[in-house]
Structure formats: structure tokens, C-alpha cells
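Two records follow; treat each independently.
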Amino acid sequence: MDKQLLTVFPYYKNPEGIYFPIVPLQLSYQERNIDSSALIDSGATISIFRTDVAEHLGIIVEKGEEIYLGGVGGRIKGYIHKLEVEIAGKKFSCQIVFSHEYLVSFNLLGREEFFKRFRIVFEEKKNYLKLE
């Protein structure tokens, strides 16, 4: 049986003093890897990353499966790609959408795949996140 790995991540504090649950991770595609980070977003179904991450990994964004995502900010077109993700010592395959229209400063980790791998505890009063 796998040993349970508990990892605690302090929230990231932006220049305006607002805290966000952001975790470091590594993405792998074919023979390339990139260290990155992403906001844990329980309101997002699928993960979405900026296209600069795809470019670093040698991914041609438009070769993925086309998808339209809707949310508070409206609707954007993206492309689904399957990547290997490593977070808190766990490796797993995850569908990630890359979009030229996604212009937000952080990548998002949505519920699909990521939330199945961990027990996630948001400690808002203490500004940290636990992944078990």
C-alpha cells in the first residue's frame, strides 16, 4: 500500500496582499519537462494553462482537441492535451487545456483528474493548503 504523503503549501500573497492557493508542479510531455505552478480552482472542471507552457514543452496547441470553456469571464476556445503531472510526489496523467485567449496570470488546476488524486484541505484562516 502506498504511503500517504501529506504536503502543506502556504498560500501565495500577491502585491495587493491577496492570498491564493497555488502549488508548484512539474509537467511532462514526451521528453520535455517544465517546472510551473497553478492555482487550485475547485470551481473549474478542467485544468487550463497559458500557452507559454505549451510552447516550452514543444506542444503545438492547435493539434489538441478543440473545446470551448465558459465561466464568469465569458467563453474561450482552447485545445485539450494529455500531459503527465507531478504534484507533491504523485505522478498522474491529466487533460490540460491550452488557450491563446486565456490571459490570466496563473494557470488553473481544475477538478478533473487532480481532485481524484488527493484529499484537499483549504485552510483559509491560516492561508495554507494541504494535499494528502
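The next record belongs to a different protein.
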Amino acid sequence: MDILRTHPMAIIGGILQENPLYVPPDEFLKEIRRRSKDRAAE
């Protein structure tokens, strides 16, 4: 799922469209770092 979130465009139903799941790189990296910290705390 994360792979889809990193691409601004996606082929949906055979048509190239803006990806509704896209997250800008800065936001995505913050989420990944937060997940890493959460796992380390477990």
C-alpha cells in the first residue's frame, strides 16, 4: 500500500489518473519515521 502512496499518478482502470492515495514525500517520510520509532518502543 505504501508504494501506491508515493506516486502522484496511477493507472486505474487502464487510464492514467491522479492518484487519490498520494502523500507528498515529506509527509510520507514523517509517517515512516514515526512507525519506526513506535516499533522500537514496543
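Discussion point: Residues 2-41 form one domain. How would you locate this feature using only the C-alpha cell line?
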